[in-house]
């Protein structure tokens, strides 16, 4: 079988069992092969990294959800629009059957330039402050916030643990995840805007952080609803982001790190929306479909065998930001299918109804990655 086959990876001497990872006595399988290791070091900004961690999920190996939550080949890769990053492309290239077309990779914000400390130190109370936008404070369970991939509105209630670890050493990390009520929390979903207070939803909509943002509500007890995140329409033009919020007359320029103050009858004055990074909202469409046109001279040309594994802009921190040739893989509304009976409200993966579909989810992600590698981002040798 193609894809993340342990048999094939062992055959090509790609794997290493590493002990002592974040204090755990249980061995962790990592991919140590040259291209994957190089891309992982570059993504995380950690030159001492020994390999890309894998996650043994009911016998199927995928990328560690802690280290690569938003990647196509993480356990979440088939339920949301996972990013087809240089990490997965490198793994396929290391198998020897394909050669990656560098420049087609999608940038993933999760873990990018987080340093060795992110990989070496277990999650703690300081983690949400150290890595904002990735992890959250478990005591902040009621605030409405953006998920790390900006595809949905969510709350801090999910944690994940390595299932192969013993009960006394399982690392617990909290992050923002949408409730398991289907597509209603996805910004790109075509639902009523009043389901998510203050949001403008639909194709092209992303979740943006908000500060001191008060939405005028007919249902709130005091007539107002305070939110820390809203869905807004996004346009990407010539490397710049424009945003249109609920009640706005047109798209407004929204440079990275700056704020816009909505002028709309839907909001009270004083609140503002933080402008996102270009690579967070402009490298794939909000529904997971492609925004790139594959160039004819991208097919296998370039310095694929050299140490930097793809010279030019493709080795930079943003992993070649732009539009990245990913098809929608049959996904709708961020890649989630219509089978919305996952029971993800439990702390550990695999509890409740999620047990029944967990293997299918993982296998789906493997299949998607295989198809994508064959058709989109790799060429046969």
UniProtKB/TrEMBL annotation:
Keyword Signal recorded: yes
Keyword Translocase among record annotations: no
Region (Disordered): 293-351
UniProt-listed SUPFAM superfamilies: Metalloproteases ('zincins'), catalytic domain
Recorded superkingdom: Eukaryota
Location relative to the cell: Membrane
EC number: 3.4.24.-
Gene Ontology CC, one term: membrane
GO molecular function, one term: metalloendopeptidase activity
Catalytic reactions on record: Preference for hydrophobic residues at P1 and P1' and basic residues at P2' and P3'. A model nonapeptide is cleaved at -Ala-Tyr-|-Leu-Lys-Lys-
Cofactor dependency: Zn(2+)
GO terms (BP aspect): cell adhesion; proteolysis
Family (UniProt): Belongs to the peptidase M8 family.
Protein name: Leishmanolysin-like peptidase
